[in-house]
Fold these 2 entries.
Entry 1:
Amino acid sequence: MTRPRHFVLYAALGTVLAVALMVLFFVGPRWLTSTPPVTPGSAPTAADVRKIRARLFFVNADGTGLSTVEQEVTHGEGTVEQARHIIDAQLAAPAPPLASAIPPGTRLRTVYLTARGEAYIDVTSELQTNHPGGTTNEILTVYALVSALTSNLPAVTGVQILIDGKEVDTLAGHLDLRRPIEADAQWVPQQ
Amino acid sequence: MTHVGCAAALLLVAAGISGQAPNPGGPLTVLSRDGRRPLPTTDVQGHQMVGLDDLATLFHLQIHEDLAARAVTATYKSQTIVLTPDQSLVSASGRLVSLPAPLTRQGRRWLVPVEFINRALAPIYDTPLELRAASRLVIVGDLRVPRIAVQYDESPASLRVTFEITPRATAVVTQDQGRLLVRVDADTLDASLPAAPTQQGLLTGIRAAEPDTIQMDLGPRFASYRASPPVSRGAAALLTVELLGTAPDASAAPAVPTSPTPATPLPVFSGETRPTIRTIVIDPGHGGEDTGVRGPGGALEKVVTLSVARRVKAVIESGLGMRVLLTHQNDNRIDGDSRAALANNNKADLFISIHANGSPRPDTRGGTIFTLGLDRVGEDARRQSQADREVIQIFGGGTRDFSLVEWELAQAAHLDGSHAFAGILDGKLRTTAGLPAVSLKRAPMRNLAGVNMPAVLIEIGYLSNPEEEQLLTSLEFQGRIATAVSEAVVAFRDYLEQGPQVPTPPSEPAAP
């Protein structure tokens, strides 16, 4: 009689141990990871965002060139990140009386930079679909973007505009956008 | 340039003169602001090879041999080129580059083909490197070392010497006692000087006198000379010096034009200047769903440009008897390449694109004439196309330049003509058409780039300006524009027929 009793006792103990192990392996980890992670320091506040002074380009008074305006732009780590912030600022609608040469609704998709210093700005199709046309309008739009990068980032030697990730012939039928365009001082006359 | 550099350049030019058939085993010359250094070459199975150790010394490379990985690396600053023994493919900063011969071991040295310099090293180097294999020259940095090719064209009474300077540089011709000096605005010259024809007694020799100067030694029959200002042909400038002789001495042998030797190619037919204008292509801007600018009153650019283009065609055809083609007759869309192709395929002599402008400011007014502007990238591409140029023999004798000019660079060869026409048109638009203001601009215009003839794009006013919108849609104003264009065509035809390359004789009669 003694042996069967011991057997039952051992079987009960084994079952309890197996259940305890299952709880430990399957439930334990989830319970452990649900603990909020401990993060050193506090979240950055608006005051902590570093800024730089960057030259941006807007339509000048006679409507045939660009004028330069210095504005604060978010600091970016590295040339590509900085280029992204500068183009974001250039695409944003300016406060009056400044007039932008960028068609409304245009957003930046991404920026690439080659080892040769050619920057590729990939923007949304509004740059083309909302463009008013005309050579001067097209020149001002293109050279505002080109000048924004070349005048602030010495590493950038030329800028090619992509629309929705694709190369385009022109923006409005005039300027050749099949290659990177360099800054041209004739469109940014001295003020 | 330093004295060392000058001396080096002298040697370089001297090497260029005898370089008609360069010794294939001779060293390359590495030319930089610091002077000139030889880079020995070795012939391996017909390939010119240079030692990696020599390259390391000249270009500050770190060479590392990894026997385990069977690789040799050449590191410059943070960039690395990986070579594999007996392999022609190398990796330059991650980019695969093909070489004409593999990395080869010779004793303790590793040898690579000379093309390693421009194909693998140049892309990772922080200073421009240019290998000129034909001249056995490696140019480091931004030195101005134009190639100078010389051609002779003999006639009984004169000898014309044409200097082709690539890339373009200005040059001045002066006479100094018994010699003529051609001084080129350059650091040094990459000169290929074939032997001068001496039979006429006008020229006894030609050689490099200074790093930037070529000297022509004058013969006993020389009387005077005419030098034309350099004209552009593609990326090159052509400077022509015509040596004029005294009456031939009765006792002297008659001056018989000699056949050019193979080393003295016939003058290359330029084809740039045209004696007259026979065909004009007028390109109405936009069309179809591409409406162009819409004026505040609703006028569409595509309608205005087509109307003006039809008027220009009518005025020129009826008044001047020239053939005028429109890139599109009706309101339909046509791409930039098709516009250029129509003009090129019809061998037109002039291309005029007509547009109406738009500005963010409603009071912006006036006309603009655009010609093609080439940026650095365009200039580089054009220079590259010139570097790839080949001279081939043509049927019937002589040679002809063949250059793999990119389609979009065709206009580059005609910019002088385009600028001349733009200047003439500027005046006519002000006077005949009465445009209040006209400006001349250069920009990378898509529809001008591929046009293989003088070409301009005219903005005849701002459709975004309410007053100019009314003007641009008036038939009377459109007629004035057509007349102004027609008058400009006549003036440009006269300019061409009189010859834009008329020499300005600076010659002082010289004692023979």
Entry 2:
Amino acid sequence: MPVEQLSELQYKRMKTLVYRLYSFSEFYHKRMKEHNVHPDDIRSLADVTKLPFMYKSDLRDNYPDKIFTASQDELVRYHVSSGTTGKPTVVGYTQNDLELWTTSLARALTGCGLGRGDVMQVSYGYGLFTGGLGLHYGAERIGATVVPTSVGNTERQIELMQDLKVTAIACTPSYMIHIGETADRMGVSIEKDTYLKVAVLGAEPWSEQMKMHIQDRLGIRAHNIFGTSELSGPMFCDCAEQNGIHIWADMAYTEIIDPDTGEQLPPGEKGELVMTVLQKEALPMIRYRIGDITSMDDSVCACGRTHPRIDRLQGRVDDMLIIRGINVFPSQVEHALLGIPEVSGHFMIVVDKKGALDEMLVQVEMNPEAFSDKVQDIMEISKKVSHVLKNSLNISVGVELAAPGALPRFEGKAKRVIDRRLN
Amino acid sequence: MVNDDYIIKQISVFSENKPGRLAAIAKALQEEKINIFAFSIAEAKGFGVVRLLVDRPEAALKKLADIGFMVSFTDVIAVRMKDEPGGLFNIAKILGETEINIEYSYAYSGKEAAVLILRVDKVKEAVEMLRNSGADLLKAEMFL
């Protein structure tokens, strides 16, 4: 579709969305009134900047479904991801929401050159996480044959990959590397002994070097898929040109802003990604601040698509960590630790790679009252902390107890994360 | 109560499992001119507990706490054993027969005899049983 027509469509859909929410959503109605903006003020796409932003904290404050604009009997699914504190983020989907999500993924996978005849192994986690089920339905929609392996049991995954002549895989980049290393140990060459040609990788930050490494080592094309559960899940991907992630403009309106001032930035400039999903029913998002840093290119792609592209994500504006594809906020860790009387609120998070996989270690100071001369007692505390963190974060983390005062103290903003993964 | 004289204050110190921690403890005690009679280290994943019998437990506890260690007193008993085969068996047998559980123990062999340090679940009963059985318990004051 020509750019002008796409913009016109975006504007129409934006206008409809704003009217709908102003009329039917108490939350948006109030938020717009607070910002002195009325749907009639939106007369062009440029006027979108008059609309207030939406934050992840809005979802937390309205847990679990207070800002949904569909009633429960209209919902056909929930997905749940981690929130910034103890409460997770719940996303509800109507049938139409699932349809849009599946359509966007079908386009994304088609853009990767996949279709009928392909066999796609979905090695994202199935369940509350959006990766597994999202890719599953997207791949079925384009007529590919899905192997729903989910995560884990890597040797079996490699056997199935060979036996079922898998041509494409969807997983995190670090799991892809892990598969490569496991295949090596099994004496299997992904390049020579399998039919794998395309990997659709995402859900965690990865670099251009990592992409080159995966492509060279495994003899496949590594695509970069993007999305977040608040938008629906993974939705957008780079095309065969591998030159930026296409954002379907008829589905989403994309802005790059200066995270400090909130001002829109011109194409090419790096800033915070802000998105409006134009036709979501259950949980609409107007100007949702995703928190990822990237830049936008609105020129027509060599593949011919007019949908704008965003660059590989360059980091976060907040302190969110992505551990094995799961979002983790240091505030969640803090919140969980506060509920354990044997430890204090002084903690550090150390993230590292063990082989290809992320490992997270939480160091926390013990309360002196909990100290015992018996090693077993202290190990019980360690186990308890580990259990509470696992329940709260949905990932296994290592725990190291420290003496009171042993961990760093911070004046002003605490820097509680040491991330050793970034080279 | 006379049995209390046999309850000795062990210093237990939490130590992260990293180089230099034991040296820091030893240095602090040297600075305070505190003598160590016996000590042991129990190690676990990522941390350890250093246990010490010293001549001035109060001073040692204060000093170690002042320099940032997590420390506590633990009641233990010290039994003189014959430094010959069967010496340990005699003691362990008494405790076993009376359903007193040994949480941990360590020993040192001195000039005159070997001494077994015991951390038990029921310290007062242990003292009584051991004394009734004729075991040679060290009084706390002997460490001062």
